[in-house]
Amino acid sequence: MLPASRRPRRQRANRPSRITATPLSLALAAALLGHASFAAAQDGQSSTNGTDSADKTTELSRIEVTGSNIRRLDVETASPVQVISKQDIENMGARTLLQVLDNLPAARPAQQDSRSLFTGSDGASQANLRGLGAQGTLVLLNGRRLSYYGAPAGFQTQFVNIDAIPAAAIERMEVLTDGASAVYGTDAVAGVINVITKRNYQGAEVSVTTDKSSRIDSYGEHQASITAGFGDLDKDRYNVYASVNLYRRDAIPLSDFYDKRPDQYYVNNPNYLKNLRLGTGSKPGVFNPGSYFAINPRTGARVQEAAPGCNNVLTGEAAGPRCIWQTWMNNEIDAGAETERMTGYVNAHFLVGENTEAFAELTYTDIDLRANGGTPRSFGTTTGNPTSWFSRNTGNTVNQFRYPFLGPNNEYNHASPELRAINGGVVGLQYLLQDVGDNYFGQRNTDKSYRGLFGLRGAIGDWNWETAFATAGTHSVTYQTINVNLDGFRKAFGPFTVDPGTGRVIISDHPAYKFGEISEANAALLREAYPTFDIQSWTRLHTLDGKIEGPLFNLPAGEMRAAFGFNISRETFYTPGNEDAANGLITQQGGSWFDGKRNTYALFAETVAPLTEKLELDAALRVDKYPNFSANLAPKIGLKYQVLPQLLLRGTYSEGFRAPSLAEAGTGGVFAQLGGFRDELRCAETNAIANLLRQSRRGGDVDLGNSLLNADCSRTVARMTQPNQDLEPEKAKIATLGFVFEPLDWLSVSADYWFIYRRNEIAAPDFSKEQDIVSMARSPITDSDRAAQAALAAMCADPASGVSCPGTLPGYSAGNVASVVGQYKNRGRTLVDGFDIDARSRFSLGEWGSLNVGVAATIARRKEAYLDDENGWYYGNTVGYHSNPRLRATINADWNYRQFTTSFFVNYVGHTKWAWDRVDAEDNNPETCTAGFLPVPEAQCDGVPSWWTANLSLAWRPTDKLNVGLTVKNLFDRQPFYDPNSFLGDSSDYASILGRSYSVTVGYKF
């Protein structure tokens, strides 16, 4: 939602000290001038009830608007700026900055902290304007930069964690939907989000909010804040205030979500519910002796049996009976982790002498995110692909791990003589290691961030000056208890030997870990075999800036003003990595590390010049110097033309840039894994086997086929991504052209065309493209592969299966991909453009109060990617394809009546195709009725349906001190639809899994 105050009437150029007062303009003035009297807005409202407002004027101080260093009376600049007040945020039902951006049409879905696990930047949330990524959106606090989050997304993208911004102290947000590198430097290609806190505050207030879901019982979101301040800046010559915000979001365990996915998810994953083993497997905490198995060396067939003492035997599988256990239902990784946040903010202003003000800010945020990993790990002897990963200190050598076998003389080898005879006594074991309990495994992320700022501002004659020093930083730590430590595993189950008959690795005949019992001694061994290891990251940012702003001289049409300034910064980023992981001892963790530091320098200048009575020029120029490449010159020019008192035309052109981050161009690299790697060869071969098995009349064949289906279409492989110190900065050309039209005092309409052409983009390797893979290695064909082929052969040889098999049965020609290597590089270009439309109206209802109605929309026109000179604009325009809707819009209506405010808010996202682009449409289209190569419901064959949700809020202020609010989110209880391209298999990017939810807020001022 955009506020009713966004579009003021502009002042006439020949009246530089006044602005015509209308209800819309006065509302914006009240929002922007924290120290101005709110009475002006009240006067403006009363004028609509009968007083002629045409002759009414109000004195306004000069203010600084996001995107400019020049103070001005006219808040409508050549660049489009959207202002979202604290009241607007409450009316839309948002409780966090992330939720505000979810309701902004110009913003696109970005990383959410609750679902950020295993992204590299676990525990943080991002802003993403225009869909150009967090690296293209600059986030400011009171006009100055914050330190990047400690852990870059995907080990590449450094960004500001918007969860660390002090929510309780927010006065408003200003969103500049235009490039601003000429003013702010790097990262401002898609726009700027400037979060502005209260300038001063006196008194005290507390607020408590709680949210609950009607669909997910475990969900809860709770906030409490207190703000207190003292001192009047005008009377006492100082003001100091502080706010503390506490936030908690409850985790959503698997037990509350496993059966709430869209129906098609269970159709496409037929064994999902069955594999949970609810009601059939042994319950958590109950001893389970496990199963033994062997692979026939001649036929490749798997033969299995339940271990003696099993009370939960599963029969009917082709390989034989086995002992099963229930999946622990406390897994919180998928649907949502638990989060606790504390943010403290202190703001102080002191008058020094007649013309100088000292100011200081201190921000501190402590974030703790935790997610239970669910089922305790099992000792699962591996016959398939080994776990593969790179590590820092082992170079290009791929580390691999397989669970070993039990030898013929192992004291825990109680397999039947028939099973032991298959491989000379060597057997595999599937056994549940539950000694450490059901809450040991999982992940935790902590982040401690701060910013301290001290500055001076004042005036020398008509010129205003300001300088400040700021120091900011973050310390992020990821704690994972999920993977094997090879040394600890060896202590529990070693020493390991190689069986001379089969060549298989086998555990000690008398291991320290005692199978068949649950004990504290076993638990201590497992805590070493599956330890909690940490990955720590630090970022630091020190800046010194200064600027001076004032009038240059008078032109015939009015005063020409200018600003000049500088910025010096010192940036560091350090991730030492975990020592065990660096040495290859932690499976699936490669000890990724970064170590970078740099000094940067910038000079900038800006001017606003009234060329005529109606035409005004805005121009800015900034020079940034980064190490390793030439100084970057970023210009910007803007024009606004007051055609009529009611009509303003405006346009801008600028050039932006993004410097390579220290993660991309420093030293170090990513030594880890890559999830979701698609190997077309293995995907096709495995699915050919699976589809034949699924036709069988024999139950075991069908289960095996269901398990194999798509199993090799998305694999986790070892991944090495190397930094590149030869990277050049990204460059961009950005333009806007639009108008603001206020035909009536109660109506404001604006429309802006925007265009961004970004080139020389810094990209991580796209491992789905052969040209990005420097090297690739495959594992050999495995025992599991041979067992699947043997099961297929047995089925085809049995007429009772009812399957007509081809003469040549499908099989495997190669093993799965084990590892890929790539490097960051400058590659390609992106072109995006579209329109922003905004309409605001304000109606007086007489004794029934007032009504504000608004519509905001972003209409995307193009999103195209230029790969290289050989492929050109290969994928075409992807607007209208998956994740790129043509239309995003919001509608709001706020009715103010006496002590009550009722708000209705609708968020709309348009229809798209299932395919990601025209190339992907060859496989995913209405004719195939698939998305991500998986079937979708028949009613959704045409693509992703359009989607909308509505919120209804009621605020009651019975006294000046007390306010009570109730918000019903997703009023009509709309449920997510199936989307196989999403993380959870549903449309949770913009359709909440929570269903209808309720929020209650109580606030009190002292």
Automatic annotation (TrEMBL):
<keyword id="KW-0998">Cell outer membrane</keyword>
<comment type="similarity">
    <text>Belongs to the TonB-dependent receptor family.</text>
</comment>
<feature type="domain" description="TonB-dependent receptor plug">
    <location>
        <begin position="76"/>
        <end position="192"/>
    </location>
</feature>
<dbReference type="GO" id="GO:0009279">
    <property type="term" value="C:cell outer membrane"/>
</dbReference>
<dbReference type="InterPro" id="IPR037066">
    <property type="entry name" value="Plug_dom_sf"/>
</dbReference>
<protein>
    <submittedName>
        <fullName>TonB dependent receptor family protein</fullName>
    </submittedName>
</protein>
<keyword id="KW-0812">Transmembrane</keyword>
<keyword id="KW-0813">Transport</keyword>
<feature type="domain" description="TonB-dependent receptor-like beta-barrel">
    <location>
        <begin position="420"/>
        <end position="971"/>
    </location>
</feature>
<dbReference type="InterPro" id="IPR012910">
    <property type="entry name" value="Plug_dom"/>
</dbReference>
<keyword id="KW-0472">Membrane</keyword>
<dbReference type="InterPro" id="IPR036942">
    <property type="entry name" value="Beta-barrel_TonB_sf"/>
</dbReference>
<dbReference type="InterPro" id="IPR000531">
    <property type="entry name" value="Beta-barrel_TonB"/>
</dbReference>
<dbReference type="Pfam" id="PF07715">
    <property type="entry name" value="Plug"/>
</dbReference>
<keyword id="KW-0732">Signal</keyword>
<dbReference type="Pfam" id="PF00593">
    <property type="entry name" value="TonB_dep_Rec_b-barrel"/>
</dbReference>
<dbReference type="InterPro" id="IPR039426">
    <property type="entry name" value="TonB-dep_rcpt-like"/>
</dbReference>
<keyword id="KW-0798">TonB box</keyword>
<feature type="signal peptide">
    <location>
        <begin position="1"/>
        <end position="41"/>
    </location>
</feature>
<keyword id="KW-0675">Receptor</keyword>
<keyword id="KW-1134">Transmembrane beta strand</keyword>
